[in-house]
Every structure is written in C-alpha cells, then in structure tokens.
Amino acid sequence: MRKEWVTGYLLILPAAVVLAAFTHVPIVRTVHDSLFSRASAIRPSRFVGTGNFETLASDPVFWKVLGNNLAFALGTVPVSIALALVMALLVNRKIRGQGTLRLAYFLPTMLPMIAAANLWLFFYTPDIGLLDQILGAFGVSGTNWLGDPDTVMPCLIAMTVWKEAGFFMIFYLAALQTQPPELWEAAHLEGASRWVYFRRVLFPMLMPTTMFVLINAVLNAFKLVDHLFIMTKGGPNNASNLLLYYIFENAFAFNDMPAAAALTTVLLALLALLAVSQFLFLDKRVHYR
Questions:
Q1: How many CA atoms lie within 13 A of 204 on its CB side?
Q2: Total-model pTM
Q3: In angstroms, rounded to a whole number, what is the distance separating the alpha carbons of residues 196 and 193?
C-alpha cells in the first residue's frame, strides 16, 4: 500500500511542482508584499500590516473600478452564456450550411483579443466608424462611443460578448451531442412541446456544462484586460477601468508594487468568494450522470 502511495505521489510531483511554482508561490508572495510599504531609494519597505488595504478602502477610484468590474461581469456573463446556448441549439440541428454556421459563430474566438479590439475600435470611431456610418444614414449624428462615460462600458460589454459567446458555444454543442435522442422521443410521445422539453429535461441535463461555463465566464470577466490597452486605457475618467488594468497601472505606471499586491489580493479573494458561492448555490441544481 505504501509503495502505491509513493508511486502516486511521484506521478503527480511534476505537475505539483509547476502548479506551486507558478500559482501557489506567487500568491503567497503577493499576500506578503501587500503587507509592506512602498520602498524608495532612501527608505526601505517596512511592515505596515493592513495599511495598504485601509488605503484602498478610502480610495474612491478603487471603489469605482470595483463597481465597473461588477457591472462588466453582470453585463457579459449571463448574455454570453444565453447567447452561447442559443447558438449551440441552432447549429446542433441538421440544417444547410451547418459547418459554415458553426465556423462563423466560433470565428471571433480564434481572433486574438488585441486584433478584436482593433476591429471594434474601427466600429466605434466617431464620425468615420462603421457604427456612426450606419446611424448617419438614418440622420443620427455621430457619437464618441468610447469617450462618453455613459456608453463606454456597454461598448466594451458588446465586444466581449461577441468575442466569448462562440467559445462557450463549443461546450454546449459538445454537451448537446451527448444527449440521448430517446429523451426527446419520449417527451414528444407524452405531448410535451419543445419549450417544455427544453425547460424540464434538456436544460437540467446541461447544468454541469452550464456550471463549468459560468465559472469560466466569471473568471474571464475579471481577468480580461487586453482590450483596455487598445480601446480606452481605462478612460474616460476611469469609466471603463477594470481591476486587472488598475493593478497594472499601480504596478507599472505608478510604480507602487505594494498597492498592486493589495489589489491583487483583493481580486483573488473576490474570485475565490465567487467560485465558492457558485459551488454552494449551484451544485445542488446540477444533475450529474
């Protein structure tokens, strides 16, 4: 028995070392750095305990950025999942051009985020952008979509949904193709409509996939930052700033590593809380087979 344990631990040792080196050790180091002050040329860093977190709590920009990220998650996660499920249902049927339609839905996922941001930057450019050109044909004047605090976040949400829905569609499509056709045949014989079959039978069977997609969508909502470099730089007036970009600003633009470490610790704690909450509240609704 002991020999089997040793063999098992040796088999997982390479993966455990990589995981510890690139995940656990950086997390511990980040939490450690968040408890120290900012060092300078004449003054070394010193232990300040929760001082950096108290500074964050009194920082209005932090609360604005946190609110932006929560709004970004609420705007992207449910819409992306719902759209992915609808697209998967459409391309799972035997229709003409099925392969082309699947490719069209999945194509945005294959584009790098920087390329997608540049593409949508052309759409949103005032006056000469595609969106303003279309609206101009109906007599609507041009709008600075990314320069207006009221429109910049919906614009980023629209681009992110377009980028991610096709990726989540793949998981739903794979799950749909594993569903036994006898379920629909039995429901049809009982007189159930397609909507009743979807609500009572199919969607509950897809809950494991939905939970997996939901966790990934929430994580993506808090770690997507590439598009901000190209499109807004967090502006105007931090209206589109998100936590990860704010961490980057503190670390490299403001050269305040302790503040960036504190922000990272808050982000990790928030993601852990969201993941645990999803498991606690959704796991009972998941039907495993």
A1: 10
A2: 0.88
A3: 5
